[in-house]
Design brief:
heterotrimer; A mainly alpha (about 130); B mainly alpha (about 160); C mainly alpha (about 90); A: about 130 residues; mainly alpha; Helix Hairpins; about 65% helix; B: about 160 residues; 2 domains; 5 helices
């Protein structure tokens, strides 16, 4: 069960460590996706995979390919940046969609449309918390 | 400078990215510069107002804080999921009145909050400036309001407003 | 020796990510509500992308990187469209 290219130990160890960290964080995230009961709780679980799960695997890939091609290889960072920038957009949209659907059904689990402060205060200045 | 080269930072970062993706050569440098110029013109056509950065020096501090927080909350949330003590954990919604109004700052705050496991950005009302968050492990509501306001919002307001 | 260490780590990591893909697919099929299914689909996209990166590390070629990038982009567009659909009932207003 060996890889087809030659690498020294000081490359193999950090790459392996980052790979295992990333893979098991991702697995933990999906275990949470299955185990948690409420949708809003489940929304937190996949962020494990999309933050350091992806991050660690991308770092491992960067270390390995920088060694193999004997030049700094950073194109994996594109995936890192892409996932970092797009995940908030998708999860925000999903969260808002779920909130909208729950509100329109009148679910008691979610806060109603007018969370504090009430809309009559609109014109006055916001109190500085 | 302004008409011909809008968004100099964008142009530089696109050229650097282009050279990182390919191998360095004069041809690739020219091609990357051409793509960057077209992209900057396209962006200028879309949105004329340049985001103003007031404090450059605080950006590394913000990045450091965010990376540390993401590592910490990764560990915390992974432990909560694996331990499976559902009865002890309570999740809930928190409404936070924000003073930050700059769209760029709000976008950065959204990225920070969503990519940190344990907090999810659900809704923001831009008329009243109230942010609705869902917190995975909610112990004390006011503690979270303080955390978001002093840790992130203060820095973002320093940087962007 | 060091090749074997990396080989076994990649294998274990791939098995873990494969298990993660199965769990995400279960959530996508089971639901119970539409937003759960979309969340499962998005997670499935992310884990599939990671699986491709791991294949790239196993073979030492960067071909898989392009596939991973394409899957990441497809997953983003699909999830945004689906979330928009859940909210308004139509994708383009």
């Amino acid at each position: 069960m060996s890889v087809e290219y030659d690498i020294p130990l000081w490359i193999a160890l950090p790459v392996s460590a980052f790979l295992l960290i990333g893979a098991f964080l991702t697995l933990t995230g999906t275990i949470g996706l299955i185990r948690l009961r409420i949708f809003y709780d489940r929304l937190h679980a996949p962020t494990l995979g999309s933050s350091w799960g992806t991050g660690a695997i991308v770092i491992a890939s960067m270390i390995l390919f920088s060694y193999l091609e004997s030049r700094p290889v950073v194109h994996e960072i594109l995936i890192g940046i892409f996932v970092t920038v797009t995940t908030p957009v998708t999860f925000m949209l999903l969260g808002r969609a779920a909130l909208y659907r729950d509100r329109s059904e009148g679910s008691p689990l979610v806060p109603p449309m007018d969370v504090a402060p009430p809309p009559s205060k609109e014109t006055t200045a916001e109190p500085a918390s | 400078m302004n008409r011909l080269l809008p968004y100099p930072l964008l142009i530089v970062s696109i050229v650097v990215m282009w050279l990182a993706l390919t191998r360095f050569s004069v041809g690739q440098l020219l091609l990357g510069a051409g793509v960057a110029l077209v992209a900057a013109q396209g962006l200028a056509a879309l949105r004329p107002s340049t985001p103003r950065l007031r404090r450059w020096d605080l950006i590394p501090k913000l990045i450091g804080i965010v990376l540390l927080d993401i590592v910490r909350s990764n560990i915390a949330v992974a432990r909560l999921i694996l331990s499976g003590k559902r009865a002890k954990r309570k999740s809930g919604f928190v409404a936070i009145p924000l003073e930050l109004r700059d769209p760029m700052g709000l976008a950065v705050l959204a990225v920070i909050i969503t990519s940190t496991p344990g907090t999810a950005w659900l809704d923001y009302s831009d008329r009243r400036g109230v942010l609705l968050l869902h917190i995975f492990d909610l112990v004390d509501e006011s503690e979270w309001v303080d955390l978001i306001k002093t840790r992130y919002e203060y820095l973002l307001m320093e940087i962007f407003e | 020796m060091s090749g074997a260490i990396l080989g076994w780590s990649v294998l274990i990591a791939q098995l873990a990510v494969a298990a993660a893909m199965i769990l995400a697919a279960i959530r996508m099929l089971k639901g119970p509500r539409a937003q759960d299914k979309v969340l499962g689909l998005d997670t499935l996209y992310i884990t599939a992308m990671l699986q491709f990166l791991l294949f790239g590390i196993r073979t030492g070629t960067s071909i898989y990187f392009e596939m991973a990038l394409v899957i990441a982009i497809l997953g983003f567009v699909a999830t945004v469209a689906l979330a928009k659909f859940l909210m308004r009932g139509e994708v383009i207003e």
